[in-house]
Amino acid sequence: MTAVDRTVADQTGAGNGHFLSAEARGQDADALRRVTSGALWSGASTLLLKLANLVLMAVVVRLVTPREFGVFAVAFTVHAVVTSMSELGVVSVLQRGDTDPDKLAPTVATVSLVSAATVATGMYLLAAPLATALGADEAAPAIRVMALAVLMVGVFAVPGAMLARDFQQNRIFRANLVAFVPSSALLLVLASAGEGALAFAWSRVLGQLVVGVVMALSADKRYGFGFDRGVLRFVLGVGLPLAGANLVGYTLLNIDYAFIGRLLGPVELGVYVLAFNVANWSMSLLNAMINGVAVPMFSRLRHDPAALARALWRAHQAVAVIGWPIAALSAASAGPLIETVYGRTWIAAAPVLAVLAPYGVLAVHALLYSNVLVGGAAHARMLLYVQLIWLATLIPAMWLGVQWEGVMGAAVAHVVVIVLVVAPTYLIAVRRMSGVSSSGVIRTVVPIACAAVLAAGADWLVAEQLTSPWSRLLSGLAVGCMVYLLLVARLAQTVLPDSENGTLGRLSTGLRRILELADLPRSALMHSVVRRNSNKQQPHLSNSEG
User: Fold this and answer.
1) Which of 33, 234, 262, 469 has the CB geometry, 3.0–4.6 Å to 339, for a possible disulfide?
2) Per-residue pLDDT tens digits for 313-371
3) What's the rounded Cα separation, in Å, for the pair 163 and 151?
4) Cα torsion at 412, 418, 419, 424 (round to 10°)?
């Protein structure tokens, strides 16, 4: 029995090597190239879609009120929590690179559909009491509409999992790009007609439908429905603990919405949600990269602790290089950013954003560790325990924070809990389950975070000298970005993969050249210092030789 077989047997109560792929028993020489390609496609596509959504939201928030936005946030909170358990975690089994999809996919498709349909029906029937419990009775119609999106999670679960498994992020990007146009058009039309929260709800349903159809058509192999009791025991043994962890995780992400909506009302919730969304730009950008490739990658390296440690270190390094400047500059430019992009109506979100900004990138680092527990250590139960500790700590902290200082208190509670409780817990869990130490990760991330803080300071100093929101935002960001690039340009070059053919190769080469140019001033300064020191030592050396 292999190490993977033993791990599966521990989790399901039986030996299940029968469900492992041939690839899991050998070495996948091509895995690293496909991981790199998948990560780049995820990053580039998410960045493009995030910019498009930024423009879209800048228009839409001028068509709706903070109250309407808060009402939709209540519906979205219910949708997010329910979706986390809609397919019982069984889809993650297909995403793992060490399982055999031909044996598992038909049963996974059946379980996903039945489970999602059951959960969606419950969400539809309980829409009114759920909306009342969250402090926004008018959210009930939007919750009922969002139940359709939950159903679609089960319908299209297998095609999405297979594309992620094979690192086909370019096809996932195509699906999201195709869906963006009709869903955005519907959102603008309905928002202009005064539909408020329902505009967001119907737009999301249409977008998810289009994404699912395109992914299903893009999959190399299509699977029908089937049922096998042995497979059912296996996928539920692996999936249910992960579904529990996902439920706790999504509750964590939305518990602040529940408290604020219940205690402060939808207007305050709308302001907070906008600030939270901006604070999580780094998280939304990097989540797709991580969720798309991390579990398949870490599962392939499970047998090699040294390789797993290197992969984790490189992943954290890449997250830090991208995520920390986004967080730091968002905090420094919070006021002009909110006013310029979303309008003066939403300026109350600026101080909340300034506090919440670090949470976004810290949550991405936590996400990496959660993927190690699932893929690199095959211990979804340990992930569930970590998430429960997080939730048990956050609930009282969030209640005290909201009671103490409203939405600002909620923001402070998030940051304090993730720094003092969540990060140390993940470090201990990963060390215990996989044997991977995080000391190298910490030594890498801390200097990058410090460079981002210095860049944010430069941003703030420049912005304070100006008055126009546009000029403060653009000038501050320009200076902050230049300072950051000067400090980390050489390190950032090591994050980029080696050049490859095609679009990704040209993108990687272009970014590398930009970073090389940014590193020229620092290199010239270091060369000057070294030459000056050498000239000072030359007479001494000559005298010694004489």
Assistant:
1) 469
2) 888 888 888 889 999 999 999 999 999 988 888 999 999 999 999 998 998 888 888 87
3) 20
4) 160
